[in-house]
Amino acid sequence: MSEIVLNNILSLGFLFLWIITLIGYQMIKNRWDGGSLVIVLYIIYAVFAIMTLNDPLFSIAFNQLKLFPYIYLYSMMIIALSPIIIHHCSDTSEIENPHTKILYILTFIIIISSIMLIPSLISGTGSGLISIFTDSSAGKEAYLEQVEGVEDSGSTIRNLPAIIFNSLTDITVFLFFYFLTLEKKNIWILSGLIFSFIINFLICISQGQRGGLVTSLLTLAGGYLLFKQYMSKKVKKISRHIGLFLSLLISFPIIVITVSRFDGETGGIGGFVNWYIGQGSLYFNNYGLTPGGCRNGDRTINLFKRFIDSSTSQNFVERRDKYHNMEINDNLFSTFVGDFTLDFGPAGAFFIFVIFYSSLIRLTRERKQQIKLYKLLLLYFALCISLQGGMTLFSYSDVSGNLRMLNCLLLYAYLRYHEQFSRAFPLQKNN
């Protein structure tokens, strides 16, 4: 059997496996939620992988595919999705009021940090933002400028408002949709969070970041689908219409940046798009289990590792130079699973996934009609890992990603132990 035929059989098998998974998932309960979105995206990525394998130019980038890496990848992705699958089977219909002001304090911090980014957005990238839509090469130039600036990053604090803003982007989405579930909605808070979304989109566009735009859009979609069952019919209808409009609006700069990045390349824009979207599972199949080395957590837990190892790479430029002998690194996509196998090896990554997601299942399982907000936060975090990294890499990597992860876990700890503290020491009203 020829290599081309075998590769197509294996990649088609991987595609059909996800199609069967989607059918089974929806048969459990015919409700479209965050897990449904993740599986649909995995199906889309698998389709683009097949198209890439049959491209005469881009197919030469891959070696012969094997069966076991696909089995491993599917198993790890299902493990990562297991808390969402269990939540999919539940019948919770209401979020328990956490009775805390920390959510409003965080919202205030997010809005203020967004406002503080306006001067730098206007002075540093205002003209660049316009040129993205008027100059066919501006998107590529903006991206290259950003990459060049990374060499001096990672060791100093340069822009505190930007650091705060970026570290709270996922929490911003979580808070927005939680506030939409409340009976009494504060229009000023919701408007402020929407303003933060707009700032985030503008920053991504000005820096030529297609990935940032897509990730932001997927996170919003995932947040909506997770909170949808707790919203009123009116709010759900309005949210769907706004979401559709936003998707169409954001697709325009994504197309412009894509044309800017790949126009004139030998493979053509279509070929590069297929390769960009479909490469994750293919590179994982080739190198995810045999990367030719181990990064020992240099990417996935970069911030935490710096406290115990001074030789930890400060940015991706240093890391790629440090591990240049490896068959694959973060310059290519291998999915969020690949990031962990490159950092800890296949056995270590499997052990981490089993322990972490088993803990998440235990911490998020709910048998009542009401679900606690801190449990929903953990489910949202698990959903973001699969949504944001199913095509590319582990999105909570490096300093910025580790800070986002740390903020989610700190908020979880506060919400959980605030409830326990309030129960142990209830406030008594004076007579």
TrEMBL record:
Where, by residue number, does the polypeptide cross the bilayer? Answer: 6-25, 32-51, 71-90, 102-122, 160-180, 187-205, 211-230, 242-262, 344-364, 376-396
Going by the UniProt record, its keywords in alphabetical order are: Membrane, Transmembrane, Transmembrane helix
Report which superkingdom the organism of origin falls in.
Bacteria
- Entry-linked NCBIfam families: glyco_rpt_poly
Return the protein name. Oligosaccharide repeat unit polymerase
| Organism (species) | Prevotella denticola
